[in-house]
Amino acid sequence: MFPFTYTRATSVHEAIEAGERGGRYIAGGTTLVDLMRETVERPSALVDIVGLPLSDVSATPRGGLRIGALARMADVAADPVVRQTYPAVAQALELSASAQLRNMATIGGNVMQRPRCAYFRDVSAPCNRREPGSGCSALEGYNRTHAILGTSEHCVATHPSDLAVVLTAFEATVHLVGPEGRRATPIGHFLLPPGDTPDQEQDLRPGELIVALEIPPLPRPLRSGYLKVRDRESYEFALTSVAVALHIRGGVIHTAKVAAGGVGTIPWKLPAVEQHLVGRRPSPDLWGQAAERAADGARPLVHNGFKTELLRRTVERQLRIVGGRS
Protein backbone atom coordinates (compact mmCIF):
# COMPACT_ATOMS: atom_id res chain seq x y z
CA MET A 1 0.00 0.00 0.00
CA PHE A 2 0.93 3.62 -0.48
CA PRO A 3 0.74 6.13 2.42
CA PHE A 4 -2.64 7.73 3.10
CA THR A 5 -4.38 9.79 5.76
CA TYR A 6 -7.42 8.52 7.65
CA THR A 7 -10.40 10.55 8.93
CA ARG A 8 -13.48 9.23 10.71
CA ALA A 9 -16.47 11.40 9.80
CA THR A 10 -18.95 12.12 12.59
CA SER A 11 -21.61 13.71 10.37
CA VAL A 12 -22.73 13.71 6.75
CA HIS A 13 -21.64 17.34 6.45
CA GLU A 14 -18.17 16.50 7.74
CA ALA A 15 -17.90 13.58 5.32
CA ILE A 16 -18.89 15.75 2.36
CA GLU A 17 -16.31 18.39 3.26
CA ALA A 18 -13.59 15.74 3.44
CA GLY A 19 -14.77 14.17 0.19
CA GLU A 20 -14.74 17.52 -1.55
CA ARG A 21 -11.07 17.84 -0.60
CA GLY A 22 -10.34 14.58 -2.40
CA GLY A 23 -10.92 11.99 0.32
CA ARG A 24 -12.24 8.58 -0.69
CA TYR A 25 -15.20 7.25 1.26
CA ILE A 26 -14.80 3.88 2.98
CA ALA A 27 -17.34 1.89 4.98
CA GLY A 28 -17.09 -1.91 4.93
CA GLY A 29 -13.92 -1.68 2.86
CA THR A 30 -14.45 -5.12 1.29
CA THR A 31 -13.47 -3.88 -2.19
CA LEU A 32 -11.40 -0.75 -1.69
CA VAL A 33 -8.94 -2.30 0.77
CA ASP A 34 -8.24 -5.16 -1.65
CA LEU A 35 -7.60 -2.72 -4.49
CA MET A 36 -5.32 -0.62 -2.30
CA ARG A 37 -3.37 -3.72 -1.31
CA GLU A 38 -2.91 -4.55 -5.00
CA THR A 39 -1.97 -0.87 -5.69
CA VAL A 40 -4.80 -0.61 -8.21
CA GLU A 41 -6.30 2.15 -6.06
CA ARG A 42 -3.92 4.70 -4.49
CA PRO A 43 -6.05 7.20 -2.54
CA SER A 44 -4.11 9.76 -0.55
CA ALA A 45 -6.93 10.16 1.98
CA LEU A 46 -9.66 7.87 3.34
CA VAL A 47 -12.86 9.14 4.96
CA ASP A 48 -14.49 6.52 7.19
CA ILE A 49 -18.28 6.95 7.00
CA VAL A 50 -19.32 3.73 8.72
CA GLY A 51 -20.67 5.55 11.79
CA LEU A 52 -23.08 7.81 9.91
CA PRO A 53 -26.85 7.29 10.44
CA LEU A 54 -27.54 5.91 6.96
CA SER A 55 -28.51 2.30 7.62
CA ASP A 56 -32.31 2.38 7.93
CA VAL A 57 -34.44 0.01 5.84
CA SER A 58 -38.10 0.91 5.54
CA ALA A 59 -41.19 0.74 3.36
CA THR A 60 -42.13 4.02 1.71
CA PRO A 61 -45.69 5.38 2.13
CA ARG A 62 -47.00 3.94 -1.15
CA GLY A 63 -45.32 0.55 -0.85
CA GLY A 64 -41.83 1.11 -2.22
CA LEU A 65 -38.61 0.34 -0.37
CA ARG A 66 -35.90 2.68 0.87
CA ILE A 67 -32.52 1.22 1.87
CA GLY A 68 -29.88 3.30 3.60
CA ALA A 69 -26.52 3.28 1.83
CA LEU A 70 -24.70 2.03 4.94
CA ALA A 71 -27.07 -0.83 5.69
CA ARG A 72 -25.15 -4.11 5.77
CA MET A 73 -25.93 -6.61 3.04
CA ALA A 74 -26.71 -9.34 5.57
CA ASP A 75 -29.11 -7.11 7.49
CA VAL A 76 -31.00 -6.07 4.36
CA ALA A 77 -31.28 -9.66 3.13
CA ALA A 78 -32.74 -10.72 6.50
CA ASP A 79 -35.13 -7.79 6.85
CA PRO A 80 -38.75 -9.05 6.92
CA VAL A 81 -40.04 -6.07 4.92
CA VAL A 82 -37.51 -6.78 2.16
CA ARG A 83 -38.22 -10.50 2.09
CA GLN A 84 -41.97 -10.00 1.96
CA THR A 85 -42.25 -7.14 -0.52
CA TYR A 86 -39.19 -7.53 -2.79
CA PRO A 87 -37.76 -11.04 -2.35
CA ALA A 88 -35.51 -10.60 -5.39
CA VAL A 89 -33.46 -8.10 -3.36
CA ALA A 90 -32.86 -10.63 -0.59
CA GLN A 91 -32.04 -13.37 -3.10
CA ALA A 92 -29.49 -11.21 -4.92
CA LEU A 93 -27.77 -10.26 -1.67
CA GLU A 94 -27.61 -13.83 -0.40
CA LEU A 95 -26.02 -14.93 -3.69
CA SER A 96 -23.55 -12.04 -3.75
CA ALA A 97 -20.79 -13.09 -1.38
CA SER A 98 -19.77 -15.17 1.59
CA ALA A 99 -21.53 -14.68 4.91
CA GLN A 100 -18.44 -12.93 6.29
CA LEU A 101 -18.42 -10.36 3.47
CA ARG A 102 -22.19 -9.81 3.69
CA ASN A 103 -21.76 -8.98 7.38
CA MET A 104 -19.27 -6.23 6.50
CA ALA A 105 -20.21 -4.90 3.06
CA THR A 106 -22.70 -2.05 2.68
CA ILE A 107 -25.44 -1.50 0.10
CA GLY A 108 -23.84 1.67 -1.26
CA GLY A 109 -20.47 0.01 -1.51
CA ASN A 110 -21.96 -2.95 -3.33
CA VAL A 111 -23.38 -0.72 -6.06
CA MET A 112 -20.08 1.19 -6.28
CA GLN A 113 -17.94 -1.92 -6.90
CA ARG A 114 -15.12 -1.66 -9.40
CA PRO A 115 -14.82 -4.15 -12.30
CA ARG A 116 -13.74 -7.73 -11.58
CA CYS A 117 -11.64 -7.86 -14.74
CA ALA A 118 -8.30 -9.60 -14.12
CA TYR A 119 -6.54 -7.06 -16.35
CA PHE A 120 -7.96 -4.17 -14.33
CA ARG A 121 -6.45 -5.73 -11.20
CA ASP A 122 -3.09 -6.46 -12.85
CA VAL A 123 -1.16 -3.18 -12.70
CA SER A 124 1.30 -4.46 -15.30
CA ALA A 125 -1.46 -4.84 -17.93
CA PRO A 126 -2.86 -1.97 -20.01
CA CYS A 127 -6.32 -0.98 -18.77
CA ASN A 128 -8.34 2.07 -19.77
CA ARG A 129 -10.31 1.99 -16.52
CA ARG A 130 -7.12 2.29 -14.53
CA GLU A 131 -5.10 4.41 -16.97
CA PRO A 132 -7.23 6.08 -19.68
CA GLY A 133 -5.64 5.77 -23.09
CA SER A 134 -3.44 2.80 -22.22
CA GLY A 135 -5.63 0.22 -24.00
CA CYS A 136 -7.91 -2.69 -23.10
CA SER A 137 -6.05 -5.97 -22.61
CA ALA A 138 -9.26 -7.99 -22.53
CA LEU A 139 -10.14 -7.20 -26.13
CA GLU A 140 -7.33 -9.39 -27.44
CA GLY A 141 -6.75 -11.38 -24.26
CA TYR A 142 -8.77 -14.02 -22.43
CA ASN A 143 -12.29 -12.63 -22.21
CA ARG A 144 -14.58 -15.53 -21.27
CA THR A 145 -16.15 -13.69 -18.32
CA HIS A 146 -16.42 -10.31 -20.01
CA ALA A 147 -19.40 -8.37 -21.35
CA ILE A 148 -21.36 -8.83 -24.56
CA LEU A 149 -23.66 -5.84 -24.04
CA GLY A 150 -22.79 -2.18 -23.60
CA THR A 151 -19.17 -2.66 -24.59
CA SER A 152 -16.92 -0.22 -26.42
CA GLU A 153 -13.50 -0.31 -28.02
CA HIS A 154 -12.15 1.00 -24.72
CA CYS A 155 -13.58 -1.51 -22.22
CA VAL A 156 -15.49 -4.80 -22.05
CA ALA A 157 -15.48 -5.44 -18.29
CA THR A 158 -18.74 -6.47 -16.61
CA HIS A 159 -20.31 -4.76 -13.61
CA PRO A 160 -20.01 -7.22 -10.70
CA SER A 161 -22.94 -6.27 -8.45
CA ASP A 162 -25.85 -8.71 -8.13
CA LEU A 163 -27.92 -6.21 -6.18
CA ALA A 164 -27.53 -3.57 -8.89
CA VAL A 165 -29.17 -5.95 -11.39
CA VAL A 166 -32.30 -6.12 -9.23
CA LEU A 167 -32.25 -2.37 -8.62
CA THR A 168 -31.98 -1.81 -12.38
CA ALA A 169 -34.88 -4.15 -13.10
CA PHE A 170 -36.99 -2.34 -10.50
CA GLU A 171 -35.89 1.09 -11.82
CA ALA A 172 -34.59 2.22 -8.44
CA THR A 173 -33.47 5.73 -7.60
CA VAL A 174 -30.08 6.66 -6.13
CA HIS A 175 -30.28 9.43 -3.52
CA LEU A 176 -27.15 11.53 -3.11
CA VAL A 177 -25.98 14.47 -1.06
CA GLY A 178 -22.99 16.66 -1.81
CA PRO A 179 -21.60 20.19 -1.72
CA GLU A 180 -24.43 21.38 -3.98
CA GLY A 181 -27.15 19.76 -1.87
CA ARG A 182 -29.36 16.75 -2.41
CA ARG A 183 -30.30 15.13 -5.68
CA ALA A 184 -31.79 11.90 -6.95
CA THR A 185 -31.05 10.04 -10.17
CA PRO A 186 -32.28 6.76 -11.71
CA ILE A 187 -29.79 3.94 -11.25
CA GLY A 188 -29.89 3.48 -15.02
CA HIS A 189 -28.32 6.93 -15.33
CA PHE A 190 -26.05 6.63 -12.30
CA LEU A 191 -24.08 3.60 -13.53
CA LEU A 192 -22.31 4.56 -16.74
CA PRO A 193 -21.33 2.31 -19.67
CA PRO A 194 -17.68 2.76 -20.69
CA GLY A 195 -18.15 4.51 -24.03
CA ASP A 196 -15.13 6.73 -24.64
CA THR A 197 -14.60 7.41 -20.91
CA PRO A 198 -14.31 3.99 -19.22
CA ASP A 199 -12.68 5.51 -16.14
CA GLN A 200 -15.95 7.34 -15.37
CA GLU A 201 -18.05 4.56 -13.88
CA GLN A 202 -20.75 6.54 -12.03
CA ASP A 203 -22.52 9.86 -12.31
CA LEU A 204 -20.92 10.99 -9.07
CA ARG A 205 -19.89 14.59 -8.51
CA PRO A 206 -16.90 15.63 -6.34
CA GLY A 207 -17.67 15.14 -2.66
CA GLU A 208 -21.02 13.44 -3.28
CA LEU A 209 -22.13 10.60 -1.06
CA ILE A 210 -24.83 7.98 -1.67
CA VAL A 211 -27.30 8.17 1.22
CA ALA A 212 -29.99 5.73 0.09
CA LEU A 213 -31.39 3.62 -2.72
CA GLU A 214 -35.13 3.58 -3.27
CA ILE A 215 -37.29 1.11 -5.15
CA PRO A 216 -40.52 2.74 -6.35
CA PRO A 217 -43.92 1.25 -5.54
CA LEU A 218 -44.82 -1.49 -8.00
CA PRO A 219 -48.32 -2.89 -8.60
CA ARG A 220 -49.49 -5.71 -6.34
CA PRO A 221 -49.60 -8.64 -6.28
CA LEU A 222 -45.99 -8.75 -7.43
CA ARG A 223 -43.89 -11.82 -8.07
CA SER A 224 -40.14 -11.30 -8.16
CA GLY A 225 -36.95 -13.33 -8.11
CA TYR A 226 -33.25 -13.36 -8.95
CA LEU A 227 -31.40 -16.19 -10.72
CA LYS A 228 -27.60 -16.37 -10.89
CA VAL A 229 -25.65 -18.71 -13.16
CA ARG A 230 -21.96 -19.19 -12.36
CA ASP A 231 -19.15 -21.67 -12.77
CA ARG A 232 -19.52 -22.96 -9.22
CA GLU A 233 -22.15 -22.73 -6.52
CA SER A 234 -19.76 -21.34 -3.94
CA TYR A 235 -18.68 -17.69 -3.91
CA GLU A 236 -18.32 -16.70 -7.56
CA PHE A 237 -19.35 -13.90 -9.87
CA ALA A 238 -22.12 -14.38 -12.42
CA LEU A 239 -21.61 -15.62 -15.95
CA THR A 240 -25.12 -14.34 -16.34
CA SER A 241 -27.95 -13.47 -13.99
CA VAL A 242 -31.53 -12.30 -14.34
CA ALA A 243 -33.89 -10.30 -12.13
CA VAL A 244 -37.59 -10.53 -12.95
CA ALA A 245 -40.70 -8.90 -11.45
CA LEU A 246 -44.19 -9.57 -12.82
CA HIS A 247 -47.57 -8.14 -11.91
CA ILE A 248 -50.18 -10.62 -13.14
CA ARG A 249 -53.87 -9.80 -12.70
CA GLY A 250 -56.82 -11.59 -14.24
CA GLY A 251 -54.48 -14.00 -15.98
CA VAL A 252 -52.71 -11.19 -17.88
CA ILE A 253 -49.26 -9.66 -17.35
CA HIS A 254 -49.78 -5.97 -16.66
CA THR A 255 -46.24 -5.05 -15.56
CA ALA A 256 -42.90 -6.71 -16.40
CA LYS A 257 -39.48 -5.68 -15.11
CA VAL A 258 -36.44 -7.59 -16.38
CA ALA A 259 -32.68 -6.96 -16.18
CA ALA A 260 -29.56 -9.06 -16.63
CA GLY A 261 -26.14 -9.17 -14.99
CA GLY A 262 -22.83 -10.80 -15.86
CA VAL A 263 -23.29 -9.90 -19.52
CA GLY A 264 -23.18 -6.10 -19.56
CA THR A 265 -20.71 -3.39 -18.69
CA ILE A 266 -23.50 -2.16 -16.44
CA PRO A 267 -26.57 -4.07 -15.21
CA TRP A 268 -28.54 -4.43 -18.41
CA LYS A 269 -32.24 -3.58 -18.67
CA LEU A 270 -34.10 -5.75 -21.19
CA PRO A 271 -36.94 -3.53 -22.52
CA ALA A 272 -37.60 -5.75 -25.56
CA VAL A 273 -38.30 -8.68 -23.24
CA GLU A 274 -40.53 -6.55 -21.02
CA GLN A 275 -42.53 -5.19 -23.96
CA HIS A 276 -43.15 -8.67 -25.34
CA LEU A 277 -44.61 -9.80 -22.02
CA VAL A 278 -47.00 -6.95 -21.19
CA GLY A 279 -50.61 -7.54 -22.14
CA ARG A 280 -50.17 -11.26 -22.73
CA ARG A 281 -51.16 -14.37 -20.82
CA PRO A 282 -48.37 -16.37 -19.12
CA SER A 283 -47.44 -19.54 -20.98
CA PRO A 284 -44.33 -21.61 -21.72
CA ASP A 285 -44.42 -20.35 -25.30
CA LEU A 286 -44.53 -16.73 -24.14
CA TRP A 287 -41.49 -17.17 -21.89
CA GLY A 288 -39.48 -18.62 -24.77
CA GLN A 289 -40.58 -15.94 -27.25
CA ALA A 290 -39.74 -13.12 -24.86
CA ALA A 291 -36.36 -14.64 -23.99
CA GLU A 292 -35.38 -14.67 -27.68
CA ARG A 293 -35.12 -10.88 -27.41
CA ALA A 294 -32.81 -10.92 -24.39
CA ALA A 295 -29.54 -10.78 -26.32
CA ASP A 296 -30.58 -8.11 -28.84
CA GLY A 297 -27.52 -6.01 -29.67
CA ALA A 298 -25.01 -8.44 -28.16
CA ARG A 299 -21.42 -8.24 -29.41
CA PRO A 300 -19.65 -11.38 -28.20
CA LEU A 301 -15.87 -11.63 -28.05
CA VAL A 302 -13.58 -14.53 -28.94
CA HIS A 303 -14.13 -16.52 -25.74
CA ASN A 304 -17.58 -15.48 -24.50
CA GLY A 305 -19.89 -16.18 -27.42
CA PHE A 306 -21.65 -18.80 -25.28
CA LYS A 307 -23.11 -16.00 -23.15
CA THR A 308 -25.58 -15.05 -25.88
CA GLU A 309 -27.43 -18.35 -25.67
CA LEU A 310 -26.84 -18.65 -21.94
CA LEU A 311 -28.55 -15.29 -21.42
CA ARG A 312 -31.59 -16.32 -23.45
CA ARG A 313 -31.93 -19.60 -21.57
CA THR A 314 -31.48 -17.93 -18.18
CA VAL A 315 -34.16 -15.33 -18.97
CA GLU A 316 -36.57 -18.03 -20.10
CA ARG A 317 -35.90 -20.13 -17.00
CA GLN A 318 -36.41 -17.21 -14.62
CA LEU A 319 -39.59 -16.09 -16.37
CA ARG A 320 -40.92 -19.62 -15.90
CA ILE A 321 -39.87 -19.67 -12.23
CA VAL A 322 -41.42 -16.28 -11.41
CA GLY A 323 -44.40 -16.36 -13.78
CA GLY A 324 -45.34 -20.00 -13.56
CA ARG A 325 -45.78 -22.62 -16.21
CA SER A 326 -49.23 -21.55 -17.27
TrEMBL record:
Listed name of the protein: Xanthine dehydrogenase YagS FAD-binding subunit
EC numbers, comma separated: 1.17.1.4
Enzyme class: oxidoreductase
UniProt keywords, alphabetically: Oxidoreductase
Location of the FAD-binding PCMH-type domain: 1-220
Ranges in a coiled coil: none
UniProt keyword annotation of Oxidoreductase present: yes
An example Gene Ontology molecular-function term: xanthine dehydrogenase activity
SUPFAM superfamilies per record: CO dehydrogenase flavoprotein C-terminal domain-like, FAD-binding/transporter-associated domain-like
Tagged with keyword Chaperone: no
UniProt organism field: Promicromonospora iranensis
The organism's place on the tree of life at top rank: Bacteria
Pfam families: CO_deh_flav_C (PF03450), FAD_binding_5 (PF00941)
